[in-house]
Specification:
The chain has 397 residues and is mostly beta strands. Strands 18, 19, 20, 23, 25, 27 and 28 form a seven-stranded antiparallel beta sheet that branches. A six-stranded mixed beta sheet has the order 21-22-30-29-24-26. Strand 3 and strand 4 form a beta hairpin. The longest helix has 24 residues.
């Protein structure tokens, strides 16, 4: 029953007062009914989340009975981490919106015991907390050429080339791979990408767990005559496709295990400025140096540990050469492009047979470099046929 409003000057009639009393009585009856049916005061019961998994620092909704919100005694914790932020717009004894603590853990997801407590007691349930996936970049994938099978393939014979791919991010990922042999002036030769057991990758895709390492094989039915380049092209969601190239210049080369090349460092010189260090990507086999815009010269420092090949120790001489790799742009001048480094018998004796040497070439752009140029650094001990190689990949932003 709706009551009519009273205007100034109206008579307060007995009918109006009776209607008002009747209205109040009905409201009291409704309130009593609500109180009878309302749950008694007690510990939280029937607790559940409206959705799982939840994310660290994200919002979640707790549902249940007698949560304790009305008495301001509600506490929620994940393990030992307490909830510190609640949504005032949803804070009742049956529904509470809260922000999940900023939990830190190594796994992609983790199950926590969530404790809901009030002044009467507590209840617990398991909650799955899942970290949001961090966006990937191409730098999260480290690709290296590993080996040939057999170790020294023969031209015209079958062989397989193995590559190692490492995911440096702590999240799952998939990588779609295509491969081919690139040769100057000739069409590319497609290669099937296989897993390390020799099975073709399903949909050309390799699956990674967090911080995972995988090997792939590129089988070739007939090895072409060098020089050629093995190209591994990679695609993953949200990342611009990227290629890894490994030049094959001499199938008969065998690495000298007495020479260990270290990661290179580089400095870039620009007009009117002193040479300053810049970041290079050195995987061991390849050093990729993308110099800043305006660079007029790159100064490299490439260290190596050389182990005495004989005991008792004797004087040795180590030579290096830096040559352009055919099939790639030749847009830089290397100086010096060769040199020799003597190591005395006394130096070996003073360092238990292992001596550090330094190779310090400089690279000057011939004009305005338009693409990546590849140069082969070869280090060799005089009198030995074995070598150690590193590919220098030069470019300028």
């Amino acid at each position: 029953m709706a009551l009519n409003k009273v205007q100034p000057g109206d008579l307060i009639s007995a009918q109006l007062m009776n209607d008002l009393i009747e209205k109040v009585n009905k409201l009291e009856e409704r309130l009593a009914l609500i109180e009878v049916n309302a749950p008694e005061d007690g510990p939280p019961t029937g607790i559940r989340l409206d959705a799982q998994p939840v994310a660290p620092g994200g919002w979640a909704i707790l549902l249940g009975q007698t949560l304790g919100a009305s008495k301001r005694t509600l506490q929620i914790r994940f393990g030992t981490a307490y909830v510190m932020e609640f949504d005032a717009a949803m804070f009742t004894d049956v529904a509470v919106r809260f922000r999940v603590p900023d939990l830190s853990f190594e796994e992609t997801e983790k199950t926590y015991t969530m404790t809901v407590a009030n002044h009467r007691g507590q209840a617990q349930m398991d909650v799955v907390v899942k970290r949001p996936l961090v966006p990937l970049s191409k730098d999260d994938f480290v690709i290296n050429y590993f080996e040939a099978v057999p170790p020294i393939p023969a031209v015209g014979s079958p062989a397989a080339f193995r590559f190692r791919i490492q995911l440096s991010a702590n999240r799952p990922a998939s990588l779609t791979l295509d491969a081919w042999i690139a040769r100057t002036g000739q069409p590319n030769l497609p290669i099937t990408v296989q897993d390390d057991s020799g099975v073709n990758l399903p949909n050309k895709t390799l699956q990674f767990a967090g911080f995972d390492t995988k090997f792939v094989r590129l089988p070739v039915s007939q090895v072409p005559t060098p020089p050629f380049r093995l190209v591994l092209s990679s695609r993953t969601e949200g990342v611009t496709p990227f290629d890894f190239e490994h030049p094959i210049t001499n199938l008969a080369e065998s690495p000298d295990k007495n020479i260990s090349l270290k990661p290179a460092t580089a400095r870039a010189a620009r007009p009117g400025q002193a040479a300053k260090p810049f970041a290079v990507t050195d995987t061991g086999e390849t050093c990729e140096a993308n110099a800043p815009a305006g660079t007029t010269k790159i100064f490299f420092e490439i260290g190596a540990d050389v182990t005495s090949p004989v005991t008792p120790h004797a004087d040795q001489t180590y030579t290096y050469t830096i040559t352009h790799v055919n099939g790639t742009p030749d847009e830089w001048t290397i100086d010096p492009a060769s040199g020799s480094i003597p190591v005395s018998k006394g130096a070996f004796e003073a360092t238990s047979g292992v001596v550090g040497i330094e190779i310090e070439p400089a690279a000057t752009p011939k004009a305005s470099p338009s693409d990546k140029s590849h140069y082969l650094l070869t280090v060799q001990r005089t009198g030995d046929t074995k070598k150690q190689n590193k590919i220098l990949v030069l470019s300028r932003s």
